[in-house]
Structure formats: C-alpha cells, structure tokens
Design goal:
disordered C terminus; Rossmann fold; kinase; 3 domains; P-loop_NTPase; six-stranded antiparallel beta sheet; alpha/beta
C-alpha cells in the first residue's frame, strides 16, 4: 500500500493538534510541527508512521512506554493516536528547537572542541543509563547525528523514538531490523538488539565527532584520521565500544562514563550536577507519614530554586487538592474556581494535577519541577518518585516516628537507589548520625525551621540536598563554549 500523502497545513489531529508544516521525513514516516488548540503558543512535534494491522498492539504498547519516561535529555511524549482509516499512527512529542549534531558539525567545520565532545558523551551516557535501567530495558536503537539535538543554551536531547523498543531477552530476534547504516550495531542487521547495541552506536558517534565526520566504523583509515588532541583514554574506549562481538564491549555505558570522566570526581555528585545542565530537573518530595512537613518542604524547595533562576513549577500530584486550594485562597483572596494554576513569587502552583496534566506541565519548558507527592499511596505516582533527578523523602528522627522511616526503607529496599535523599525537619546532629547508621545510607540530612517557605531564602538549608542544582548556570555556560 502506498504511503498516504502528507497532511495539509491546517489539518487537525485528535481534535487538538493543528498541522503547520513538515519538519522532516524519511523511511519511517514524517514529522510535523503542530500548534496546540488547548494551549495557545505551545508547539509540538507530531510523528506520523504507517502501521501494519499486526503491529497495532505493539506500537500502542511502545507509545505507552514512552509516555512514562521522564528525563531531561528526552523529549516528553504527550499523546498517542491509534491508526486512522489509512493506517497512520501519530505520536505527539515535545518540540525541540536547535540544531542536530550533523548541522552542528558543519557549523564547526568538523572540529568541535574536545570539552564539548566529552560533555556531550557524558550527557548521552546518562540518558542511555536511564533507558537501559528501565524494566524491561529500553534500547534506543538509532543513535546518530540527526537524532541528537543541541539547543542554543547547550541542552542535549535525543529525538525520534520511532524505533525505540523494550528489550525482550526471551525473544530470539526483534520483530524488524532497524537502525541507520554506519551507526547501527552489527547485530541489528540480523534483527537483534540489546543495550550494548546503543553502546556501539555511541562509539560510532564519538568516532564521527573525532574524525571530522569522515568515519563511524573502526578501520585503519579511521584510526589515522583521529585528531591528535584526544584524551588518551578515549581512543581505546571508542575502539572497544565498536567491537563486532557484543561480549567484547563494555558491560554497560556506566563503564564508558567512568573512562570519559577520569579525574576522580565523585560520580554521584557529577551525575547530579549533570542532571542540572539543561532541560527540566525534577525534585520529587514524598512524605513518610501524614503531617511530616513534606508540602512545607516542597514549597520551600520550589521557591529556593526559583530564586536561583529559571522557571519553576510546584505540582500537587495524585490527590484531591486541599493544601494548594488553601494557599490560593490565602494569596489570591478567592477560591480557584476551576483555574488550573496560580503563581506566587515566580513559582507556578498546579493543584490536584493528574498524570495527563503532568505531561502538559513537562512540556511547558520549566527549568525545575517540584512534585509534592504527599504520602504517595498510588503506585503509578511512586514511579515519578523513582524517576526524579532528586527523590527526597521527608521523615522524622524522633523516638516515636523514626521506626516509620526504617520500616519504609526496609519495605522499599528492592527499589531503593543511592541517589535517594532523606530529610529530617528539626533533627539534631546526633539524631541524623544515628539515622544514617540505622538506614545504612549517607544521604540523610537535617532541615532547620523554615518559617517563610515562600521567601526563597533557604539556600543554605537546602545546600546538601539541592546543591548540585545551584551550579546549573555555570554548567550551562560551559556547554555554550562549544558553540562559539
């Protein structure tokens, strides 16, 4: 069946997204720039793909998978529409402005700065770690210059999830053979892929950057074309990533990241700082028990980040509005009356947001989003806590409440992550030390009294928790050096 003609300007998808123009097209379909009838001034990238009837269920399942992803280096997937009468499916994603890596290479005449190359590699490693850490792992499968977007402010995003798939170890082969010649791993031509396939593509991308765009496969000519100012650890890392045999590559991209950053810096701190380098950073605040002060802490954190710079949202997620309604009444002098949001001192408050609305919020270009999860009784909302750049648990070190925090830690031990942070309002130093010992976790901090959470003057109090975000502007400036 021939591919249907492209949609005309003014065509409306899902009674909401108005086609403005074609952004690009290829073998997998087309991408349109679309305006939003519900959010004036908001732009979306809508990917159109043809689907065989046998693929409908798989495509819909993968679209649902993508809508759950939350990472600063991934465009937010906001909507999905099942096949129309002509067999076209539509995936609505955040529109990313900027240049792709191929265009950037042309701008630099094929010689990007080495600091830029290393920083770019670290960003890509971080997002691949996130994708491969999903259950089951997600394999991007088409990492190439055209699918890496560089924003004017230095942000790095992976785009075009038309072929991203959940890895299925129990299957002998993928349903289809996909990837881009020159960047796809050898096994992809046999219809197979796993997380190491993305590692191969990263090696091909780095070789491309370090040979002036001339090579993406390791050959004697490619080795001779390598620029002489490369760090000594990078050349063997690229060669190993480009191994034909999967078992000869690195065990994971985390190993690659350690080789790229060989300066002995604390890896967790570096990763946290990297999360603040561009796009949206998410702070999720979860209360260990009702009345522990999690909302108070979330408010203070949001206003502290807003004062540091950048648009900030505070979202009351997954429960009926109560506290935020009272705050709106106090500050605006009247009930919300159906309003979706209100603002206090440069922070946008979103009361009683559901997951559908959360997708809209992530698409609005906020620098920081603070999620007030309350005690988070909903398992799907707890997923947002697990995805957050900074997951913060508010509890107590008091004798009559400390057991609740220990019980929570034991209950969630299988999902616990090293980046989890515990905050104990009003706790004394000895109580913090004792809780660190009992939890077996070093990231436990006291929070002093915060009498004015709206003031934004709690920088010192949040330094151990949010300190990595305070250096955001300096890190963004570093990335911009590569664009001069």
């Amino acid at each position: 069946m021939p591919y249907p003609p492209q949609l005309e300007r003014g065509a409306v998808i899902g009674e909401r997204y108005r086609v403005e123009r074609v952004l690009g097209s290829g073998g997998m379909g087309r991408v349109y720039l679309a305006s939003d009838a519900k959010l004036p001034g908001k732009w979306w990238a809508v990917k159109e793909t043809m689907a065989d009837t046998a693929d409908y269920e798989r495509i819909e399942n993968e679209a649902r998978m993508l809508t759950r992803l939350r990472h600063r280096s991934l465009p937010q997937v906001a909507d999905f529409f099942a096949p129309d009468a002509e067999g076209r499916v539509f995936l609505v994603m955040e529109y990313i402005e900027g240049s792709n890596l191929g265009e950037y290479m042309a701008h630099t005449e094929g010689r990007p700065s080495i600091p830029f190359v290393l920083e770019l590699a670290l960003r890509i490693c971080e997002v691949l770690e996130y994708l491969h850490g999903q259950s089951p792992p997600i394999v991007f499968r088409d990492l190439k210059p055209g699918n890496v977007m560089i924003g004017g402010d230095g942000t790095v995003r992976l785009i075009d999830f038309g072929i991203a798939r959940s890895a299925a170890p129990e299957k002998n082969a993928d349903t289809v053979k996909l990837g881009t010649i020159g960047f796809a791993a050898p096994e992809q031509y046999e219809g197979r892929s796993d997380p190491s396939s993305d590692q191969y593509a990263l090696g091909a991308l780095l070789l491309y950057l370090c040979t002036g765009g001339a090579f993406s496969e390791w050959t004697p000519d490619a080795q001779r074309a390598l620029r002489p100012d490369m760090p000594p650890t990078l050349v063997p890392a690229i060669r190993r990533m480009l191994s034909y045999r999967r078992e000869e590559r690195f065990e994971s991209v985390a190993e690659v990241k350690r080789l790229i950053r060989p300066d002995g810096t604390d890896e967790e701190h570096a990763a946290s700082a990297g999360s603040s380098g561009g796009g949206t950073t998410t702070v999720a605040v979860l209360g260990n028990y009702p009345g522990c002060g999690s909302t108070h802490t979330a408010i203070a954190a949001a206003h502290t980040l807003a004062r540091e710079g950048g648009r900030t949202a505070l979202v009351e997620l997954g429960r009926a509005s109560g506290t935020f309604e009272r705050i709106a009444m106090e500050w605006e002098g009247e009930p919300l009356k159906g309003k979706r949001t209100f603002s206090i001192r440069d922070v946008d408050y979103w009361p009683a947001a559901d997951r559908e609305r959360l997708g809209d919020i992530f698409g609005r270009g906020y620098r920081h989003i603070v999620l007030d999860l309350g005690t988070c009784g909903n398992a799907r909302d707890f997923e947002e806590f697990l995805r957050a750049d900074i997951p913060l648990i508010v509890g107590s070190a008091s004798e009559w409440r400390s057991g609740d925090l220990i019980a929570f830690a034991h209950r969630e031990s299988l999902r616990a992550r090293p980046k989890w942070i515990y905050a104990l309002p009003f706790a004394a130093d000895n109580a913090v030390k004792d809780m660190r010992r009992r939890l077996g976790h070093k990231k436990v901090y006291a929070l002093p009294a915060l009498p004015d959470p709206f003031g934004g003057n709690a920088r010192e109090a949040f330094e151990p928790i949010l300190g990595a975000l305070y250096g955001r502007q300096a890190r963004r400036s570093f990335m911009k050096l590569g664009f001069r």
